[in-house]
């Protein structure tokens, strides 16, 4: 792994800054924040109106002076100042209450695989601005695999497909490292846009953003014979009036097939880049789906038909990244070769001491024992400052010599 497990065990907070939702995990406590990554701001005075779920409900319903902003896009912070204000409003009170006796705040955060330096710097500055003294950045593919229960630290291949809101990542892991990985610009939002575009082109219906999610239930029903057609309410493109149409689930499946093709191509690319021995392991283990978009109906069957490998959806795919990072913070991840050595998995005993001043520091500030002797004045110094005894005699005026000549003249 790119980050040492010992460094992660010193962290107190785990954060998953996703494009759709922001999740924060507190060590030995659990998940304390799971809110949409949305902020509502008053454009006239810059005041923060709301964050999270209330701000998400305002989308498309706000007046001209209120703007709904998403400061995180594709797992990358695009607006540092707004992201700090959002996190401060979400977790500020909860962290202050839980970390009263912690002099230092160390945070671990998930970042996309092979994130560029600007994205890493943006995540670092966002968390440092919240008061964190140290920030550890961990690959989200590794944390998602750990959260899904995959044995990533073992010398066996495991394949994970992380389907996020804006992007998807495919990787094969072994011995705690990533063997091959691919990233595609396909996620839950891409599928939603494809559904909206399909209704606009084929039914002249404009669908609001809040009405896209119910279409996923339509995808999960029906067998393509038209008997399970569902009603969808929207606005007519030509007249602008409200209209209701009946949608066949099979037509929606055809609409989302195009964005899913990019994901299938990424899976094939990763399999071609892996050694034959690891591909043989994957034939038995299969593929694990994580991320919020992994619950898209029909996604697992589409990947299974395309690759011929077994596909499994994680128990709680949306929380795999943050829960896996929390497991690393709490020391529940065993490195290779430590199965029978529990002492190596426990936090280092020096950890509490590092949070406080070192015991040697006061000794260095004390003056050396020889210093007072050097400051004492030398014994001869007072004798040199005393006036010489002949000095008063020289200053006396010679009065007798001046008076004798006067007496002789008289």
UniProtKB/TrEMBL annotation:
For ATP, which residues are the binding ones?
A: 165-167
The entry's keywords: ATP-binding, Cell shape, Cytoplasm, Nucleotide-binding
| Xref: Gene3D superfamilies | 3.30.420.40
Which processes are annotated in GO (biological process)?
A: cell morphogenesis; regulation of cell shape
Q: Does the keyword Transcription apply?
A: no
A Pfam family hit:
MreB_Mbl
Purpose of the protein: Forms membrane-associated dynamic filaments that are essential for cell shape determination. Acts by regulating cell wall synthesis and cell elongation, and thus cell shape. A feedback loop between cell geometry and MreB localization may maintain elongated cell shape by targeting cell wall growth to regions of negative cell wall curvature.
Q: Per the similarity annotation, which family is this?
A: Belongs to the FtsA/MreB family.
* Listed name of the protein: Cell shape-determining protein MreB
Which lineage do the record's taxonomy fields give for this organism? Answer: Bacteria, Bacillati, Actinomycetota, Actinomycetes, Kitasatosporales
Q: Which gene encodes it?
A: mreB
């Amino acid at each position: 792994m790119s980050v040492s497990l010992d460094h992660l065990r010193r962290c107190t907070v785990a954060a998953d800054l996703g494009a759709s939702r922001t999740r924060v995990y507190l060590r030995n406590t659990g998940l304390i924040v799971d809110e949409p990554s949305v902020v509502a701001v008053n454009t006239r005075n810059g005041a923060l109106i709301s964050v999270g779920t209330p701000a998400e409900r305002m989308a498309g319903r706000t007046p001209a002076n209120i703007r709904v902003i998403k400061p995180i896009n594709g797992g990358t912070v695009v607006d540092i100042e707004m992201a700090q204000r959002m996190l401060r409003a979400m977790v500020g009170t909860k962290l202050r209450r839980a970390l009263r006796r912690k002099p230092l705040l160390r945070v671990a955060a998930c970042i996309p695989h092979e994130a560029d330096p600007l994205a890493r710097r943006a995540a670092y500055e966002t968390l440092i601005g919240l008061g964190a003294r140290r920030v550890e950045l961990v690959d989200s593919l590794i944390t998602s695999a750990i959260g899904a229960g995959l044995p990533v630290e073992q010398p066996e291949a495991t394949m994970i497909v992380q389907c996020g809101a804006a992007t998807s990542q495919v990787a094969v892991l072994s011995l705690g490292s990533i063997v091959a990985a691919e990233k595609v610009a396909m996620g839950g939002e891409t599928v939603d846009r494809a559904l909206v575009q399909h209704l606009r082109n084929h039914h002249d219906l404009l669908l609001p953003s809040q009405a896209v999610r119910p279409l996923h239930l339509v995808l999960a029903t029906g067998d393509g014979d038209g008997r399970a057609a569902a009603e969808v309410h929207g606005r007519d493109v030509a007249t602008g009036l409200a209209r209701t149409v009946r949608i066949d689930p099979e037509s929606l499946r055809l609409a989302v097939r195009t964005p899913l093709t990019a994901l299938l191509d990424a899976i094939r690319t990763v399999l071609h880049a892996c050694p034959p021995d690891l591909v043989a392991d994957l034939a038995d283990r299969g593929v694990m789906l994580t991320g919020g978009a992994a619950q898209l109906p029909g996604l697992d069957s589409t990947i299974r038909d395309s690759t011929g490998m077994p596909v499994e959806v994680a128990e709680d795919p949306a929380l795999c990244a943050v829960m896996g990072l929390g497991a690393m913070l709490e020391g529940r991840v065993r490195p290779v070769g430590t199965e029978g050595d529990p002492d190596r998995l426990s936090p280092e005993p020096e950890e509490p001491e590092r949070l406080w001043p070192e015991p040697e520091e006061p000794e260095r500030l004390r003056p050396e024992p020889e210093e007072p002797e050097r400051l004492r004045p030398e014994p001869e110094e007072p004798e040199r400052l005393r006036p010489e005894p002949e000095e008063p005699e020289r200053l006396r005026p010679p009065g007798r010599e001046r008076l004798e000549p006067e007496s002789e003249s008289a």
